[in-house]
Amino acid sequence: MEKRTQIAVLGAGIFVRTQYIPRLAEISQLVLVKSIWSRTQESATGAIEIARKHFPEVECKWGDEGLDEIIRDDSIPAVAVVLAGQAQVDMSLRLLKAGKHVLQEKPAAASTTELEMALSSYRALCASSPSKPIWAVAENYRFEPAFVECKKLLADIGDMMNVQVIVEGSMNSSNPYFSSSWRRNFAGGFILDMGVHFIAGLRLLVGEITSVSATTTHVDLTLPPPDILSSSFQLENGCSGVFVMIVSSKSPKILWRVVGLKGTLQIERGNQDGRHGYLATLYDADGRSKSTFYSFSGVTEELKAFINDVSNMTLKKESGYEAEPRCSFLEGARDVAVLEAMLESGYKCGELVSVRKF
């Protein structure tokens, strides 16, 4: 068997326990989780107990000393950073400077100001380092089969006429992330943290957004402001669209709809036969439709892509290797830039705001 890539996971919260550990276990023929780190021993131990069912030799690390041990460990070429949004960029840059490849959870940063600083530091690091470590952002929507396959069908609907994204979320007290303190103290709150997913799906389908005009409101006082965003947007190809996001709704619904001259393409989140995923429907010019259901698999696919990139750059030592572009920090930056423009427009009572280019 080909040697597995060893990684460390920084963070031991809900997403690590419910997604990272099970999804990494699914690809254990490719990857070995050597260490899991958290700020406290108690938190790290909780995640380790889950991970040991799949990775019996995983090591428990915590605090400054544990982090230093991971950084100094040359057998660990890659690290997944799954921390509070406010801490991720600084931690990622520290690891990159130590020569580690980094997969950082979304959002890429809290603001375009932080993005500019991060990209400047990363480019300077790559210019001075022969190894050019990978800085990837874990955005699973760019890897969901529903979006990947539907992008191939866009030509079938003819010239694009309009785009609609409707997000009615379910962020209420029964959601495990509802009480997350960092999300509540994050610039843009749940809109930014959740919204980057939906913008990523939108951009993958229809391309870049150049300008926006939005209204933001705060109705559900159990949530940080704003909790409602309604925005029109202009695409680089000249087409216009609307993006509506309600953080918490009693009737959750999430869909992307692209209307063309010869048909319409729609992706709607749902479940089929007990499987959660997306129903993709193509409507043709005669009103006929064809639907295909795609189960969720984006997290697994993004992890496989990152591990493959690390393997090619370290184990196989390929020179001039180009990492998977869908994972790039730059793509994550572009998602944040769109949402920041929408939030800024909302604060300015609907003023037209150009999206910062990265």
In short:
The chain has helices at 14-26, 41-51, 63-72, 88-97, 112-128, 145-153, 181-184, 189-206, 298-314, 329-347; strands spanning 5-10, 31-38, 59-62, 78-81, 101-105, 135-138, 160-170, 209-217, 228-235, 240-246, 248-260, 264-272, 275-283, 289-295, 353-354.
Your description of this structure?
By secondary structure, the protein is an alpha/beta fold. It has helices at residues 14-26, 41-51, 63-72, 88-97, 112-128, 145-153, 181-184, 189-206, 298-314, 329-347, and strands at residues 5-10, 31-38, 59-62, 78-81, 101-105, 135-138, 160-170, 209-217, 228-235, 240-246, 248-260, 264-272, 275-283, 289-295, 353-354. Strand 1, helix 1 and strand 2 form a beta-alpha-beta unit. Helix 4 packs parallel to helix 5 and helix 6 (145-153) crosses helix 8 (189-206). The model has no long low-confidence stretch (mean pLDDT 93).
Topology:
Blueprint: E1 5-10, H1 14-26, E2 31-38, H2 41-51, E3 59-62, H3 63-72, E4 78-81, H4 88-97, E5 101-105, H5 112-128, E6 135-138, H6 145-153, E7 160-170, H7 181-184, H8 189-206, E8 209-217, E9 228-235, E10 240-246, E11 248-260, E12 264-272, E13 275-283, E14 289-295, H9 298-314, H10 329-347, E15 353-354
Parallel strand pairs: 1-2, 1-4, 2-3, 4-5, 5-6, 7-10
Antiparallel strand pairs: 7-11, 8-9, 8-15, 9-10, 11-12, 12-13, 13-14
Helix pairs in contact: 4-5, 6-8, 8-10
